[in-house]
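User: Here's a chain of 274 residues. Predict its fold as tokens.
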Amino acid sequence: MNLIAVLIALAIIIVAFKFNVFLGIAVAIVAIGVGIYNFLPTYYAINGNKAFEIGDEDRAREWYKKACETGRANVKLKSSYAYVLLRTGYADEAEKVLDPIIRVKGLAPEKKNLAKQQRCMVYYKQGRLDEAIEDAQSMMNEGYRNSSVYGMLGYFKLLRNDDLDETTKLCEEAYDYNSDDRDIKDNLSICYFRKGEYEKAEKISDELVVAAPNFVEGFYHGIQIAMKLNKYDKAAEYAEKLKECKRSGMTTVTEEEVNKLIQEVKNHNENTIG
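Assistant: Prediction complete.
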């Protein structure tokens, strides 16, 4: 309930009390009931957010689902629910939440674009990479740009092995837009790595691991760069830190890939010592 609604409710209660005490009490009870009724989705979402923050993914999904099932959840709350579903590995369920938002006629462009942005990640998780790139590129062409869209599109293009020069240009543009974003940094370091420009890749990678010390992909790609530069002590240090990084449903490298790379570093260092 917003401030204006609260003030109106208070005014009505005051007027009711002036006419009759019992009428005032009745109106106050109704107002409180309406307030609780309207606040329930927010209350459930707050609990969902708290559960998500402490890593209780099941409870987080349950609370957000409960909020949406009231039938009174707003677009922001639904988008938050979709985010939680994505982060916890439920892409198909996230799509079911997002599609109705995108179909709403007259919805504010920024709200619709946020839902589209999230759906791009859904498509990616479902293996529908071409659709993800098409939608992300369409939003960019229409002028909808933010760090998440830049990072997302850059990563998708790298994943699809699009023209490397064009992808590098996009990732450099993204870095100019926001040089602090971890995904943007990671994408640019990968571009330079693939182009064989390892010193440039290392510079960006070094920035990244300092700025995002729990970012799986940052250390994973940092190890690859360090190995190319024959800096195996650095690679071993990163490997230890990589083990401690927290994974999520949005982590883009698999545990198998992580373990294989760590083993490569270990084998090299053991053979060198031997």
